[in-house]
TrEMBL record:
Pfam family, one: Rce1-like
Transmembrane residue ranges: 16-40, 64-87, 107-128, 140-159, 180-197, 203-223, 230-247, 267-286
Any single GO BP term: CAAX-box protein maturation
Domain of life assignment: Bacteria
Keyword Transport part of the UniProt annotation: no
Protein name, as recorded: CAAX prenyl protease 2/Lysostaphin resistance protein A-like domain-containing protein
One GO MF term: endopeptidase activity
InterPro entries recorded: Rce1/LyrA-like_dom
Record organism: Flavobacterium frigoris (strain PS1)
């Protein structure tokens, strides 16, 4: 089973603490190109250094900003590979899925399902409240965005999934020897990692509910499906299609998208609705398609370390 693949007597929790530090260092190294760009613009071109995250997001041309932000995830993913391979003596497959190979049909099913939903819901919002949007489409910048987004956004989302639903999920399983604690902890940490996003500052900490709920949803489908394929597909569609369709002055990604949301953001039903309605519907769809069973055991059961060590 997926979460048990990282649980053994040699894989102590302290290794995950060291591994996490290495992954964070790799992430910082990946931010060097962004830092060099900032230094060039401020010291050579004489621009004022951005005073905060919002100013940072508008400092460069949007496609350049997106590229510089996303390139750091390439370094982070490399860091994850080395930590998994050489510190934990595992394969990347073992932190991806319990299957003999990655099931790409699962990835693309989750990707297409959420991509279609995102496109349809965005068009509904646009036609229902056209005054809240302006057409932002510019052919050449959008084409560049498509290339950058298609190449790097799946790396960004996959990196986050490997950290939370793969690496840390198995790490907390080593610590707690059960499944509910890794599910809860990775969801809360996932939510906390997004608290610095511009939309949180704009709409308040209630957005934390959405991020924790999303982390919980991704964790549930990973545990129930015994692998990350569905989570990888969902997350990639969420960020890629979102970046191509809609941007705003307060969103995490500033992009040359098709639409720009100019409405005043409010944290209301649109924040809570995905968590309490849409995600349960997706869980139902996935569970029927992949014939999930044993929900209580897979989400809250104990891990039998003796049985694992005998395998």
């Amino acid at each position: 089973m997926f979460i048990e693949q990282g649980v053994n007597s040699e894989n102590k929790f302290w290794k995950y603490l060291i591994g996490s530090v290495v992954i964070i260092i790799a992430s910082f190294i990946g931010q060097v190109p962004l830092l060099l760009g900032l230094l060039y613009e401020t010291m050579i071109e004489g621009k004022a250094y951005p005073s905060g995250n919002d100013a940072m997001m508008h400092f460069f041309e949007p496609n350049l900003t997106l590229f510089l932000i996303l390139i750091s995830f390439v370094f982070t993913l490399i860091g994850i590979y080395f930590v998994v391979r050489y510190l934990h003596k595992q394969t990347m497959l073992s932190v991806t899925t319990s299957r003999k190979k990655i099931d790409w049909s699962r990835f693309f099913f989750a990707f297409s399902t959420w991509a279609i939903f995102t496109i349809v819901s965005t068009l509904i919002f646009y036609f229902a409240s056209p005054g809240d949007f302006v057409i932002n489409f510019k052919p050449v910048p959008f084409a560049i965005l498509v290339v950058i987004g298609t190449l790097l956004i799946p790396i960004q989302t996959s990196t986050e999934e490997y950290v939370f639903r793969g690496y840390l999920m198995q790490g907390f399983a080593n610590l707690a020897k059960n499944k509910w604690f890794p599910l809860l902890m990775t969801s809360v940490i996932f939510g906390g990692m997004h608290l610095s996003n511009p939309e949180v500052l704009k709409m308040g900490n209630i957005v934390f509910v959405y991020y924790v709920g999303t982390g919980l949803f991704l964790g549930i489908i990973t545990l129930m499906d015994e692998g990350m394929e569905l989570a990888l597909g969902f997350h990639a569609a969420n960020n890629l299609v979102g970046a191509l369709l809609v941007t705003s002055d307060w969103s995490a990604f500033q992009t040359h998208s098709i639409f720009k949301d100019i409405s005043e953001p409010e944290a209301g039903l649109d924040v809570i609705l995905p968590v309490i309605v849409i995600y349960p519907i997706l869980l139902f769809i996935f569970s029927r398609k992949y014939q999930w069973s044993g929900w209580k055991e897979k989400l809250t059961g104990k891990i039998n370390t003796q049985e694992i060590n005998n395998i």
